[in-house]
Design a protein that fits this description.
The structure holds three protein chains of three kinds.
Chain A (H helix, E strand, L loop, with lengths): L3 H9 L15 H27 L17 H10 L1 H32 L5 H13 L2 H14 L6 H26 L2 H9 L4 H30 L2 H6 L7 H10 L6 H25 L2 H5 L8
Helix pairs in contact in A: 3-12, 4-7, 4-9, 5-7, 7-9, 8-9, 9-12, 11-12
Chain B lengths: L9 E10 L2 E11 L4 E5 L6 H9 L6 E6 L2 E2 L10 E4 L11 H11 L4 H14 L15 H13 L5 E5 L7 H18 L3 E5 L2 H7 L2 E6 L2 E6 L1 H6 L4 H6 L4 E8 L2 E3 L4 E3 L11 E7 L5 E3 L8 E12 L4 E6 L5 E6 L8 E6 L5 E4 L8 H4 L8
Parallel strand pairs in B: 3-8, 3-9, 6-7, 7-8
Antiparallel strand pairs in B: 1-2, 1-4, 4-5, 9-10, 11-12, 11-14, 12-13, 14-20, 15-19, 16-17, 16-19, 17-18
Helix pairs in contact in B: 2-3, 2-4, 3-4
Chain C lengths: L4 H16 L10 H22 L8 H7 L9 H29 L7 H27 L4 H8 L13 H25 L3 H9 L4 H30 L2 H5 L10 H10 L3 H26 L13
Helix pairs in contact in C: 2-12, 3-12, 4-7, 4-9, 5-7, 7-9, 8-9, 9-12, 11-12
Classes of the chains: A mainly alpha, B alpha+beta, C mainly alpha.
Chain lengths: 296, 373, 304
């Protein structure tokens, strides 16, 4: 057995270095990390707050806060920019793009996830490349094409150009979701006598609902925020909210800044509503992290 | 790798760890002389992994002390404890080759390069992986990966090696091979080792000494033979293979379980005081026959329900006179529904005072060949 | 078989062969998506490349105009390449360098992690146009930031944060960091925490554990994050226009292409767009080929 003397000297030895033990979060790097994070969050909140405040100001102020508050800029900007019209267009474009995208992307993602066939890698590349090519590279010729089809300044044109980045994006979001569904479940259904259509409707459909929701919501967020493509094909009769916001912000000198900020606030409210909906449906890290998915 | 005697002497004193109001480990006392192989055995959630993590420094104890060779280590961070650990999921560094994985601990200890190479080479030989030195962990099989993990642990000549269910991710035959290998390695290097497992055969075959844990409390400490032959209580008995347990009352030399009465003998000193008790019998000691020979022991009539062929004999499950489920053995086959007689010698019936709480369900506590998950 | 005749036989054999190579009827489900991408992505890109070679004076005139700075609102289109590259590289380096430590500290259980992630998502949802216009308000000479710095006496003149590279960079970081952060959270949580413990037991101090174990395992994820941040930062122009000064110091390539396009100079617009694509793909190619030298495997230390 252990010799007792050694043990007792051990206990009499210098007190444990417990105090110096692993100080979590109080290291220099920790301070830098959290400091950076709070600068980011603080800057963001202050920037948003300054837009909000500026949209409610009666008069441009010299001090921190405006001299008086009013909501008249909202009504004014509603008529100046036709905000109602813009909102309707934005929603129409969003819904149409999401519907078409999901209808096209789901079967594509299914085939790419499940089957191996000659040309599969090439197809995968076809859906990956639009993610790494600058938007302008295809936006310029695509817009020319849309003009030639006489679809410019129409809803159809905007929907069409927005589909180009949306479909491959949705395919890539859906792929891991399809891969997660064990193919043996499908095989089991087939063994039980289900036809292809029934497998899709009764087995895959319900299992893929989370994936479809994720893809749909993320696509919607992207379409609402999509600027470059929509900008190139939209005209005065067909603008989405972002494009109008950009237009107003560019000619800032000619418009009351409160009016522009009122519009920005409306835009912000729209997107944040979308974000809240999205967060209820999608775990953001799960989607963004699909490459880093751990196997455990 | 210098041979005998590089292990240190471990002393654990009143080690206790709480998670909130839950006590994961209470008052663990253990004295491990240098070079001993101790297995912590118990079902999942018994506190054995907590104990190991406390030893490794991955958890802080609530109270209690740990000393290695007389030096307090319980407040040191893991990297200063001079220990090594083998993890259940191997935890090999996927971006390093086998040789670099093994060299990692030596690098951290500032071992000069030529010596490092030599020691890594010897460690590779020890686990017979010389040919795989430049492979990456993902290119190895599970058994090879775990051998790398073992080599990574022993190469630094730690004063204490901790093993956290190292065999439980391997399939059955591989597990057996590696078990023998671990035993051989320990005999060769005599490293002080604490080995955590829920598999009693693993613990019995590997360890010099066993510590059986349940709900954070030590149930029994002893050599494998002591624990196997003289379990301290009904829980330990159930865990080391006493699969049949009958509640009843002990009076004199007779155990009354209601519908059946057993004569008991032997183990005189261990026998509990008369009163409520539990009789426990190993299936191997309960022999099923059609016609009992006279005077062979206690005879229990049995209705056969299931008969399994097990190569060297048959394992039979049946119900006794009071409907008790009994497991027994026979060298002959029985048909379900058949009536037979189970015979057990009086000195093969182990008696324990009736425990306050339930004995563990044998199916979970006794992994015969398969693995409870 | 014999009844189907020679042509039917041939068809059957062909179908059989196709089936053996994996072409089952289900494969045709991919056709609508693939067709759409070919018609509305591949074709326009090819068309654009073709268009860029149809300049007014010979096949290469659009490119010659581009590189000789002979475009509308001439501010030096060659310089635009450098400006865009600098902005995008700087923004993605900042994004990755900030995202990695934040995400690394988030890998365990951290209080209010979900709320924090939600806050971080806000600028992503708001998009470049809104963030740029909000930054203009916030960072401007009479914005809150300058007011505060003046107020505490840290500066005497308002800092020129708008109308130059600084403003654009800040705006790009605000839109790009959330994305980089989200990706890195995924990568850091994909690393088996057991490896950190194993390294600790092997005697590695916290800093050694990070640099010798976690960091090498994060590198592949960091390169991907860098690439995607770069793609995001390279193509946008609202920030360069609204917060920067697109007539000079922050005239990015996409703005050049857009200006040419809006004047109806399609060949030069296409040429600018092609130059953009080439530069971007070159950077991605460089980064990814460097990544090929690094570890590319699972980030868990055992069987999964």
């Amino acid at each position: 057995m252990t010799d007792v003397a050694a043990t007792s000297t051990g206990q009499a030895a210098p007190p444990p270095v417990g105090a110096a033990r692993r100080p979590p979060g109080y290291t220099l790097t920790g301070a830098v990390t959290w400091g950076g994070l709070w600068v980011f969050v603080g800057g963001l909140l202050l920037a948003v707050a300054s837009v909000l405040l500026a949209s409610l100001t009666t008069q441009l102020a010299d001090g921190w806060l405006p001299r008086g508050y009013t909501t008249r800029w909202y009504t004014q900007s509603w008529t100046t920019f036709g905000l109602g019209r813009l909102l309707v267009t934005t929603v129409e474009v969003g819904v149409a793009v999401v519907a078409v995208t999901l209808a096209v992307a789901l079967p594509t993602a299914y085939v790419l996830a499940r089957l191996t066939f000659p040309g599969r890698r090439l197809l995968l590349l076809l859906f990956l490349v639009p993610q790494v090519v600058p938007v302008m590279t295809y936006a310029v010729p695509l817009a020319t094409l849309v003009y030639r089809l006489r679809l410019n300044d129409t809803l159809a044109g905007i929907v069409l150009v927005n589909l180009v980045p949306a479909i491959p994006f949705a395919v890539l979001v859906l792929l891991p979701f399809v891969e997660q569904v064990d193919p043996r479940i499908e095989q089991a259904a087939r063994v039980c006598g289900a036809t292809n259509r029934r497998v899709f409707v009764h087995i895959l459909g319900p299992l893929l609902v989370p994936g479809l929701l994720a893809a749909g919501v993320l696509t919607l967020v992207r379409v609402v925020g999509q600027f470059e493509l929509t900008f190139l094909v939209s005209g005065p009769d067909s603008q989405t909210l972002v494009v109008a916001l950009y237009g107003a912000a560019v000619q800032a000198g000619e418009l009351a800044s409160q009016e522009i900020n009122a519009m920005a606030t409306v835009y912000m409210a729209t997107t944040l509503t979308l974000l809240l909906v999205a967060l209820r449906v999608v775990d953001p890290t799960a989607v963004a992290a699909r490459d880093g998915r751990s196997s455990r | 790798m210098t041979g005998r005697g590089c292990g240190g002497a471990l002393r654990i004193d009143a080690l206790r760890r709480e998670f909130g109001s839950f006590t994961a480990l209470e008052g663990l006392e253990l004295d491990v002389p240098a070079g001993e192989f101790v297995a912590l055995l118990g079902p999942s959630g018994c506190g054995k992994s907590t104990a190991l993590n406390l030893l490794a420094g991955l958890l802080d104890p609530t109270t209690g002390t740990i000393s290695l060779d007389g030096r307090r280590i319980d407040r040191l961070p893991p990297e200063q404890r001079g220990i090594a650990m083998v993890f259940q999921n191997y935890a090999l560094f996927p971006h390093l080759t086998v040789a670099d994985n093994i060299a990692f601990g030596l690098r951290m200890r500032g071992c000069p390069k030529p010596e490092r190479a030599e020691r890594v080479r010897r460690a590779l030989d020890l686990v017979r992986l010389r040919a795989q030195a430049d492979r990456y962990p993902r290119q190895l099989s599970g058994g090879q990966q775990q051998r790398v993990a073992i080599a990574r642990a022993v190469v630094v000549e730690p004063r204490l090696v901790l093993m956290d269910e190292p065999l439980s991710n391997l399939d059955a035959s591989l597990r057996l091979d590696l078990r023998t290998e671990i035993r051989a390695l320990h005999q060769q290097l005599s490293l002080t080792t604490i080995y955590v497992t829920h598999d009693q055969t693993e613990a019995l075959s590997l360890a010099d000494r066993l510590v059986v844990l349940r709900d954070g409390a030590v149930q029994q400490v002893g050599t494998p033979a002591e624990v196997y032959e003289r379990p301290a209580n009904a829980f330990v008995a159930g865990f080391v293979g006493y699969r049949n347990s009958l509640p009843g009352t002990l009076t004199g030399g007779v155990f009354d379980a209601g519908d059946l009465v057993l004569r008991v003998g032997g183990y005189g000193t261990d026998r509990p005081a008369p009163g409520p008790a539990v009789a426990m019998i190993r299936p191997e000691d309960l022999l099923l026959v059609r016609e009992p020979a006279a005077g062979s022991g206690n005879e229990v009539p049995l209705d056969v329900r299931v008969c399994e062929y097990q190569g060297r004999g048959f394992a039979i499950e049946g119900s006794g006179p009071g409907g008790q489920l009994l497991h027994c053995r026979s060298d002959r086959s029985f048909r379900p529904g058949e009536r037979a007689v189970a015979v057990v010698a009086p000195d093969r019936v182990r008696l324990f005072a009736r425990p306050q709480t339930e004995t563990p369900t044998p199916d979970r506590a006794l992994p015969v060949d398969g693995q409870p998950s | 078989m014999s009844a189907s005749g020679p042509s039917g036989d041939h068809l059957l054999r062909w179908r059989d062969r196709a089936r053996r190579r994996g072409v089952t009827p289900t494969v045709w489900l991919v056709v609508p998506g693939a067709l759409f991408m070919v018609v509305f992505f591949v074709y326009p890109v090819c068309y654009g490349v073709g268009l860029s070679f149809q300049g007014t004076q010979g096949w290469s005139s659009a490119y010659r105009d581009f590189f000789a700075d002979r475009l509308v609102n001439n501010h030096g289109s060659r310089r635009s390449i450098l400006i865009t590259l600098e902005l995008a590289l700087a923004a993605s380096v900042v994004n990755v360098v900030l995202a990695v430590p934040i995400a690394y500290r988030m890998r365990g259980r951290v209080r209010a992690k979900r709320a924090l992630i939600a806050v971080v998502l806000v600028p992503m949802t708001l998009g470049t146009v809104f963030v740029a216009s909000a930054m203009k308000e916030f960072l401007g000479p009479s914005g809150w930031l300058n007011r505060a710095l003046l107020g505490i006496g840290a500066i005497e003149q308002p800092l020129p944060l708008v109308g130059n590279v600084t403003g654009v960079l800040l705006s790009l970081v605000f839109t790009g960091l959330p994305f980089a952060f989200l990706l890195m959270v995924g990568y850091t949580s994909g690393i088996d925490p057991g490896l950190d413990k194993a390294a600790a037991v092997c005697g590695a101090r916290p800093a050694q554990r990070f640099w010798l174990v976690t960091f090498p395992l994060l590198l592949p994820g960091m390169t991907i994050t860098f690439c995607l941040s770069f793609v995001l930062a390279f193509g946008v122009f609202p920030s360069a226009t609204l917060v920067g000064n697109d007539a000079g110091p922050t005239r990015v390539l996409s703005k050049v292409a857009y200006t040419e396009y809006s004047y109806g100079h399609y060949p030069t617009a296409s040429a600018a767009a092609v130059v953009m694509a080439v530069v971007q793909l070159a950077v991605l190619g460089l980064v990814l080929s460097a990544r090929g030298l690094l570890h590319r495997g699972p980030t868990t230390g055992g069987k999964g």
